[in-house]
Amino acid sequence: MVPFGGGSGRRPLSSRSLGIAKPKAKGTSRASKPRKSATKSKSQPIEGAVLAGMTSRERATGKPASRLIDQRIRDLGGWRGETLARMRALILEADPAMTEEWKWMGTPVWSHHGIVCTGEAYTKVVKLTFARGARIPDPSRLFNSSLEGNTRRAIDIHQGEKVDAGAFKALVKAAVAQNGPPAKAGAKAKPGAREAKPIKVRKGEKVAVVLLSGGNPRIAKADGDAPVQAYIGAMPGWKRDLGKRLDALIVRNVPNVRKAVKWNSPFYGIDGQDWFLSFHVFTHYIKVTFFRGTSLRPVPPGASKHKDVHYFDIHEGDKLDEAQMANWVKQAAALPGWVP
Known about the structure:
This protein folds into 2 domains: 65-179, Aspartate Aminotransferase, domain 1 (Alpha-Beta Complex), CATH 3.90.1150; 184-333, Aspartate Aminotransferase, domain 1 (Alpha-Beta Complex), CATH 3.90.1150.200. It has a 7-stranded antiparallel β-sheet, with helices on one face. Helix 2 runs antiparallel to helix 3, helix 3 (78-94) crosses helix 4 and helix 5 (225-234) runs antiparallel to helix 6 (238-253). Mean pLDDT is 79; it is low at 1-62 and 189-207. It has 7 helices and 18 strands. It is of the alpha+beta class. 39% of the residues are buried.
């Protein structure tokens, strides 16, 4: 374990003094309705590197997702902007119920019951990547990139090239059909996921929880202590007891803590300063994420590709240094948090 270290000596900072806004309501936009969006930090974005190894999750932005895609097209300009705009229009024509999103530090995403495709612009190519392209029939052979994998397929469009509109819209419709409708309540879990025993969320209420890859509980996104306790109660084996210890330690050291479940992980924050910590179940360990980890002393040992984030992994049999963890928690709670 990391040796015990002293406090940071920092005073709690308000979001007002640091120019960090409170999180706005998350959302997305649809072509047939007024477009909504999700929110994102005004500080340097850290989505995409925050919770390494987690499953697909919604990302936030401070403006409506569709307006950000509009701006992206304007910023690109030239043939790349024109190409992305044309392909976007074809996607929305193919499926008027398509949802536009803005993820992974600036990637346009089109979703319907899951991700259909993403749109990225590079110096010499505009790339449309289909999340499940390997399973989609492509009689017109539009896919010309990422052909070696078993999941994704992509269309690379170079300057001067024009994709057949009818064939592309057929591809989009096939991708939506491949995603299928959302699972109905009581439906069996997909292969690779296993059902855990029903757990109590509120008095008299039980919810069947599915364990995702690595044994991580799938809990609907919600604010408050109840969903966090539902998550902890569904954590498998030794991880459940550790989850209870972490939750109690955080509450003990940050009495005014705010809780939520986002992207199948418990989040802890402070009103006005947003989220400072989260944890997530993996097969052999629990990963604790400090969103401003590089500002803690000592710095938690797990590095991230994002400079602000650091991790602390706890394996079965590890002796949790509660004094050190409490020290980190108190320091983290005093810093401006991450706004998803």
